[in-house]
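Example 9 (inverse folding). The structure is encoded as follows.
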């Protein structure tokens, strides 16, 4: 960890997707300045030019190896929007299942495998008493929305987990666990809670795999699903056919989803509340912008007027509902600024339809350009996307189920709604959203089974791309927040393609007015106990679940003439 006087550079931040560099200045034990720099660039949008728009979804899901399905889905919605194609309800329901289950996998992986070890000291867990840990585990039933202790919290399971860990330690086989900040003064859990956390870390590997399997059954492959087509899905639905999505496969998905639902309700939620309660001050640290945006998600009719989850723009506590993806203020309000990003554009601030992005790498310059990510803004405001925005849109929009879950977690953790805007609050909001994903996946599955009794249509196949000029936008609430894709189509092929990605909204650098992006804001005033081991910084950045592979998209680093490169 390079430390230079009062400067810390963390490069790369690990346990994230992609390459992110964070720089901070520390004064009086607290962060006094901060910079977030996306360090990788790559590109797919430029490749899209001249391609058949019906193929865009298959290519754009390669933006990322994590949220592949979200780009596929957003892309296909974009082309359908541009060409005015209506999608049958069954196809929406299958797509919703993919989308909600993908979020579930992402959330489980994030909490247990990407951030848990920022809070759980596994070396301390080797000192735990499994009997005492099992007792604590029983008491965590109170933190579960279904009031049940997690089934495998037994003495034997915890004893096995401890023995496993002790054997890793004594044989010096800690591997990827070898370099954690164990024994750091900011680590505070008892050995018993650390043991519980580690046991669930191991179990979570299995549950994230189960939900990924359910996505693969529908999508034929995961990552990178194969079952989309403009106008619907290519997954034929026939309950009696071995060659289609049949009753056996549906039941298999139902079983996997049920097991994951039990894990989320019985282990994930109680763990987040227990860890959050032990690190209470982290509900007051790491605050960033109080402007939030989330679009409606989980479409429940072909006309795209009915959604399972609400969207909205929130400024402080002021709520404006986004009723549909067509709302003009939504589409008009999004811009991207490149004043501090490595581009030389005709204008620093552009609407996503007007891509004009020329890469211009000039090294890291804290007063000038220092990131490949751009700075998206909504109505010229620094705005956050992500689980907090998603949950607040439901809360302020009056969704009783969202309110019930938020109130439950807030009451158990002893926090106010406003404290979701914090390091621990981001982890809590993500867990709340996982509960919603479970519910909506179950609702979509039941609705599909019901609808299929009388309607087995799953595609309005688009045989040809019409001639003429079209443009359209697609939206998706991805695990990390609002994703939008933008396309211009001319004479049957793509003229321009653009993606404004959740992690870009939060990871972006300062804008033309010098306003920091959300990652940067979240680091300001954060206490740092040890300059050489800046665990607090990692905790804050991890709470956003960064995906920098998504956040930066470009191609042709040499910037050859005639090729426009744009990065999101
Ligand atoms: Ni690459 Fe993603 C999500 C999208 S990026 S993981 O969630 O879209 O923020």
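The amino acid assigned to each position is listed next.
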């Amino acid at each position: 960890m390079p430390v230079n006087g009062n400067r810390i550079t963390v490069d790369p931040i690990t346990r994230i997707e992609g390459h992110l560099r964070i720089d901070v200045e520390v004064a009086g034990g607290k962060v006094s300045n901060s910079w977030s720099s996306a360090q990788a660039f790559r590109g797919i949008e430029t490749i899209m030019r001249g391609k058949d728009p019906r193929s865009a979804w298959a290519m754009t899901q390669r933006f990322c190896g994590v949220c592949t399905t979200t780009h596929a889905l957003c892309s296909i919605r974009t082309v359908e929007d541009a060409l005015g194609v209506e999608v049958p309800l069954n196809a929406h329901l299958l797509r919703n299942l993919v989308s909600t289950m993908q979020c579930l996998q992402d959330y489980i992986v994030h909490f247990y495998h990407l951030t848990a070890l920022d809070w759980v000291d596994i070396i301390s867990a080797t000192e735990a008493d499994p009997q005492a840990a099992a007792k604590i585990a029983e008491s965590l039933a109170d933190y579960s929305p279904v009031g049940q202790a997690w089934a495998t919290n037994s003495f034997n399971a915890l004893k096995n987990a401890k023995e496993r860990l002790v054997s890793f330690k004594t044989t010096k086989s800690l591997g990827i666990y070898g370099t954690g900040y164990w024994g750091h003064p900011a680590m505070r859990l008892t050995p018993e809670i650390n043991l519980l956390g580690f046991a669930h870390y191991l179990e979570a590997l299995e549950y994230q795999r189960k939900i990924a399997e359910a996505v693969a059954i529908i999508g034929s492959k995961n990552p990178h699903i194969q079952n989309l087509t403009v106008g619907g899905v290519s997954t034929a639905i026939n309950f009696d056919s071995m060659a289609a999505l049949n009753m056996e496969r549906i039941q298999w998905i139902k079983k996997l989803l049920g097991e994951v639902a039990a894990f989320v309700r019985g282990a994930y939620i109680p763990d987040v509340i227990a860890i959050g309660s032990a690190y209470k001050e982290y509900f007051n640290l790491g605050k960033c912008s109080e402007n939030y945006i989330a679009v409606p998600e989980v479409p429940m009719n072909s006309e795209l007027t009915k959604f399972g989850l609400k969207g909205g723009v929130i400024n402080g506590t002021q709520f404006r509902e986004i009723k549909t993806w067509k709302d003009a203020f939504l589409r008009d309000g999004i811009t991207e600024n490149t004043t501090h990003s490595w581009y030389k554009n005709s204008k620093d601030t552009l609407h996503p339809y007007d891509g004009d992005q020329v890469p211009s790498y000039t090294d890291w310059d804290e007063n000038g350009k220092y990131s490949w990510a751009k700075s998206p803004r909504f109505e010229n405001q620094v705005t956050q996307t992500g689980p907090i925005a998603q949950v607040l849109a439901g809360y302020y929009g009056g969704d009783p189920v969202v309110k019930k879950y938020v109130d439950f977690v807030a009451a158990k953790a002893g926090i106010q709604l406003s404290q979701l805007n914090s390091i621990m609050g981001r982890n809590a909001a993500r867990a709340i959203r996982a509960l919603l994903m479970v519910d909506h996946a179950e609702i979509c599955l039941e609705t599909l089974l019901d609808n299929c009794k009388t309607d087995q249509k799953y595609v309005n196949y688009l045989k040809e791309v019409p001639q003429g000029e079209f443009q359209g936008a697609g939206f998706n609430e991805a695990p990390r927040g609002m994703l939008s894709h933008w396309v211009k189509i001319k004479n049957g092929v793509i003229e321009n393609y653009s993606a404004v990605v959740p992690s870009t909204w939060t990871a972006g650098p300062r804008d033309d007015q010098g306003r920091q992006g959300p990652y940067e804001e979240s680091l300001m005033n954060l206490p740092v106990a040890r300059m050489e081991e800046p665990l607090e910084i990692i905790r804050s950045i991890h709470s956003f679940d960064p995906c920098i592979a998504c956040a930066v998209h470009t191609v042709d680093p040499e910037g050859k003439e005639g090729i426009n490169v744009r990065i999101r």
